[in-house]
Amino acid sequence: MTYIAKPRLHHPSLAKNRVGFTRRDYEGKISTLCAGCGHDSISAAIIQACWELDIEPHRVAKLSGIGCSSKTPDYFLGNSHGFNTVHGRMPSVLTGAYLANRELIYLGVSGDGDSASIGLGQFAHVMRRGVNMTYLVENNGVYGLTKGQFSATADKGSRSKKGQSNNDAPIDLVTLALVMGATYVARGFSGDKTQLVPLIRSALAHQGAAVIDILSPCITFNNHSGSTKSYDYVREHNEAVNRIDFITPREEITADYAAGEVIDVRQHDGSTVRLRKLHEDYDPTDRIRAMSYIQEHAARGEVVTGLLYVDPEACDLHQQLGTVEQPLNTLGAAQLCPGAKALEKINASLR
Amino acid sequence: MKPTDISAPDYFHKVVDCQWACPAHTPVPEYIRLVAGGRYSEAYMVNWVSNVFPGILGRTCDRPCEPACRRSRVEDETPDGRERREPVAICRLKRVAADYKEDIRHLLPQPAAQKNGRRIACIGAGPASLTVARDLAPLGYEVVVYDGDRLAGGMMRTQIPKFRLPEAVIDEETGYILDLGVDFRGGQYIHSLKAVLDEGYDAVFVGCGAPRGQDLDIPGRKAAAKHIHLGIDWLANVAFGHVTSISKRVVVLGGGNTAMDCCRSARRLGGEDVKVIVRSGFEQMKASPWEKEDAMHEGIPILNNLVPKAFTHNGGRLTGVTFQKVRSVYDENGRRTLVATGEPDPHFECDAVLVAVGQENAFPWIERDIGIEFDKWGLPKLDEKTMQSTLPNVFFGGDAAFGPKNIIWAVAHGHEAAVSIDRLLNGEDVAARPAPTTSLVSQKMGIHAWRYDNAISNDRRLRVPLRDVSAALKNIRIEVELGFDPQLAFKEAQRCLNCDVQTVFSNRLCIECDACMDICPMDCISFTHNGDEDDLRTRLQAPALNPNQALYVSGTLKTGRVMVKDEDVCLHCGLCAERCPTGAWDMQKYLLVMTHAGCARTGASEAQAAVT
């Protein structure tokens, strides 16, 4: 918690992007989270990613549920649309908004409580429907707002600050998202922005259900030696399978790599994600292999991070429904209501 | 890079740009906070201890601190120049302390109860000599100050016009020193240093200034001599009331601060058509930018690139000055030469000329066979740190030492010379200089509360209110600047970034959560792999482009990386420390106080201690 506003003054070299904004223009209000919270680093990564992508702030809608993580949309993109919804119900509201206006960029911000406990059902359904969005889970393994009880993502055997052991099996949101049919699945760490910012950038560019599970240490309740979601533990057990070097819509990729070092994933909107391999045998386009890979490494106590799965042929909800290109919220009564005669005709055909 | 050694006194001192730039190393942010808090007497004393003449300097200082001010590196500017980056008005806040203080005489050192039997002569009663007297008299030295003028102050009294520096301020601040039991012998011009030495003084300090104005030896100078005056002599005559008027059309030759004082004085003594005509271009003029502004504000045009060629006259009466038009040409080494443009020579009609083209040192009263050596420019050979001449018990300071500088340099010289004299007469090594006193104290008051205002003001530099021009020009003794009132002073003081409140980092406590890096409004903080300085400067959060500003490098962190902070544009807002979960960052006030002569024994250091 900080009382003074972040000063307006900035570094003299602060640059503007193609749409005329500096990185500072993508900031929000000053954070009221605990000092050192991983969530604040994620907010900084979102700011950086949106600035780099030349996104106009008014084209973004950020939606969240309830919890520490769900407070964070107040701390970034202060000039974007926002909706702080009910606990665990962000996916429904996001889906509705997306159906009404397909032209906005949807950013769902949630946490492990909001997504893996009260909102687990909503989480599963929004993935299988293929809503075009970037769904960020700020995952710290505890209920920070209610003083640090284990959440559903806490690892079995990990210990609370007071020393109790967690006996329940953890929900792995990455695996769940893969099972449910998400088309872009990644895991990041709030303490590694060089990995996280490109993950967010390519998720924002992905045309389908993109989810990033971001390990985000709770500095107050879950950053001790018995925790498996502390800064130290995640750093020691982090196994990054790849690094996104860049994502480009149309430009030529010019950087030179030896054969076998990189994978280019061309998506059907024309963009390419170039991945530098860190684990030689990892193929991020193979969903089945990805699931077993993640599970194998989890069993060894390793936290697999990076872009875990991407479907280059992703299809979103509007395509599946065959809706018109024009956003539904801009259609007039004449377009939406075909009139009595048309109704007669339809009714007649059903008789 | 190696981890930064923050225990070296210079490291944090350099971060306080203003204090580092001040020759006397006045703790500027310290007194600005006191001004903001309305604690004017204490702010005055912080100044008085360091720079001896806060009221005088608050009006007349050359302000080396202001171009150094960090504020002028962090503000936005617009290409059209409507919004400029500007430093805090440090100098004029000093004046506020002097204007609004209460009676501070009880805070001053007392005259020594007992003399120590040592006798010091100071030649000249200007800022350098008076500083020596102030530092030594309370220690028990018997200090005798000689001056050719009846009153103390030297050039502060004779060369600075009263509309910039009222007589009362000079009387007050020279009085504080003379009241310390100093034996002032006004009106006693020294004709022989040998004679002074023969009187058995233990040490002599020469602070006689650079009392000779340079003349302009061009045709017509002698014939029209009656109407051509040397600037500093004329100003002295004005100051003492010997000159009370000047003719209507005046040309001032020269582009320094003396020329600015001459033209503005002429404007007040009957000069209606007053011009300043300068050899150099406008930007290259030696005068401070604000002094040029002040002159132009009073309707005085400044004409540039004109070299005086001849005085025209008719029967002993001056009729004008002829000039040659030139332009500046720079060679590869940046050396300037003035080249004639070939245009016809302009002639400016006038009835009087003031020549303010420079000052020279003159020591006709120092015998050349008493052991004091001079260099080829006629300046004494001195040790730059100790101010000692080749005759061990004779010291120089102020303009007499290294040629014309300014008041604040004279004060700095005075302090150093006083330290030297004190050490010499106590049988200590003069070359060994006492280290400054430093302290570093956490400003943390509560979880997010600090002992200083860490919110950053967005105000632009405030203008000092001026007296209406027509009223100001009526009387040469009416002060033009009205000074900040307490409300304006508070607003201006809040622009200060408190650069003395240092960001102190402990790598042992850091957990590398990035919180400080994320919150820093200036992108000063980076966590990265170590490298050499040139390499590191390019790959920080924001490039570190100012090589004069240090990088603060931590010891190695858990991940093998280091924290690197670019000191250049840090706002000292303390947000890094507020967002730090482990207290690895702390805001700590660094106070550096120069050690003056016999510091431990003086009331001055007690006064300093009382306010800090």
| CATH architecture assignment of chain A | 3-Layer(aba) Sandwich
Strand order of the largest sheet of chain B: 3-2-1-4-16
Structural class of chain B: alpha/beta
Quaternary structure state of the chains depicted: heterodimer
Query: For the record, what is the CATH homologous superfamily label of the largest domain in chain B?
Result: FAD/NAD(P)-binding domain
Radius of gyration of chain B: 26 Å
CATH class of the largest domain in chain B: Alpha Beta
Q: Report the CATH topology name of chain A.
A: Rossmann fold
Q: Looking at this structure, what is the CATH superfamily of chain A?
A: Thiamin diphosphate (ThDP)-binding fold, Pyr/PP domains
Categorize the overall geometry of chain B: globular
Largest sheet of chain B: 5 strands, parallel
Report the major sheet of chain A: 8 strands, mixed
Question: What is the count of β-strands of chain A?
Answer: 13
Strands side by side in the biggest sheet of chain A: 2-1-3-4-8-7-13-9
Strand content of chain A: 15-25%
Uncertain regions of chain B: pLDDT < 50 for 5+ in a row? 600-607
Mean pLDDT of chain B: 94
